[in-house]
Amino acid sequence: MFGKKTMKNQVLKSMVFILTLLVATQMQAQEDKERKRDEAIIKARIDQFVADFKSGNGEGFVDIFSDSYYAPEKKKGIIQSIQQMAQTYTIDYQIQVDEIKVDRDMAYEIGSYKSTLTPKAQGEIIRQAYDFLDIWEREEDGKWRITRAIKTKK
User: Fold this and answer.
1) Domain carrying residue 114
2) I need a labelling partner for 66 at 20 to 30 A (CA). Which of 1, 7, 48, 126 fits?
3) Contact at 8 Å (CB) between 121 and 127?
4) Structural domains of the chain, count
5) What CATH number corresponds to the domain at position 116?
6) Per-residue pLDDT of the chain (154 residues; tens, 9 = 90+)
7) Which pairing describes strands 89-103 and 144-153: parallel, antiparallel, or unpaired?
């Protein structure tokens, strides 16, 4: 009798262990799926940011930045500057994203960018190139925004 009870307990323990592994595997798969989705959303936000900058859409340009990065009053000035820049220059702006990593509601992005501002009338061409690290957070409205950034001139 003692042997059968011990065997039942071992079988039950094994079943619980297997079920735990299955659940953990499913949870990991779901987390991986959500992480990949969030990485794709951030990449799409970056692509839209580039398009907004090139076209002079200042409001779209500042939407990628959290209010903790640029205060709303500062964003108004940036919007005007981007619009004026697009009237004065042809903007070429390229971002190379080397890595995006997401962990729940925070992420980081590493890469580089280069910009060329070519005057529409006369003047000198302005070129810049930087490496950067951006810190992203998913905000209350569900959008991913940059909250902190570090850049170094190439």
Assistant:
1) 2-153
2) 126
3) no
4) 1
5) 3.10.450.50
6) 556 677 778 877 777 777 777 777 787 778 889 999 999 999 999 999 999 999 999 999 999 999 999 999 999 999 999 999 999 999 999 999 999 999 999 999 999 999 999 999 999 999 999 999 999 999 999 999 999 999 999 8
7) unpaired
